[in-house]
Amino acid sequence: MTDDAHKARERLKADMARLAAGDRSALEDIYRATRVKLFGICLRILGDRKEAEDALQDVYVNLWQRADRYDAERASPISWLATFARNRAVDRLRRGKVRGGAVPIEHAAALADEAPLAEELLIDAERSTRIHHCIETLEDNQRENIKGAFFGGSTYAELANAAGVPLGTMKSWIRRGLLKLKTCLEAGE
């Protein structure tokens, strides 16, 4: 486990302990850290966005009521929450009020969860924020052409034609921009 993943897991454990102690703000922190993964679990089982949203709401309402049942010695917080979400979704299936698209109840238990862990999502979000911050520090011609090349899929030749500059100039702008971007990203680590 990376250092960032370990920190994210420890933050989530601390948030779970705060919630169990009655700290309402902890629920919001837990929600932000876990909503994507838990929604993915509910959606895969229920096959309907509205049903998954309802199940996810049930998860957090029940979490608020039962946070004191979490035991950090027995499971990681995200594993416990993922099991909690899966159980809420399966409960909805068993009640039989789920719309079409849901997996058959007998397949729900074995449904694999291939979504990234909440810790990985947090790390990715932090990296994305850092990258976008660093991109905004570049000169306009570097920023726009790096975005065009790496996010927009344009070739250097296409960018050069669009900007009305020689290919060598475009390559220089992007190369210098990437060097500045690298320096900025390394400074933020």
UniProtKB/TrEMBL annotation:
Xref: CDD domains: Sigma70_r4
Pfam families documented for this protein: Sigma70_r2, Sigma70_r4_2
Annotated SUPFAM superfamilies: Sigma2 domain of RNA polymerase sigma factors (SSF88946), Sigma3 and sigma4 domains of RNA polymerase sigma factors (SSF88659)
Keywords on record: Sigma factor, Transcription, Transcription regulation
The RNA polymerase sigma factor 70 region 4 type domain, residue ranges: 130-181
Domain RNA polymerase sigma-70 region: 31-96
Stored NCBIfam families: sigma70-ECF (TIGR02937)
Family per record: Belongs to the sigma-70 factor family. ECF subfamily.
Record protein name field: Sigma-70 family RNA polymerase sigma factor
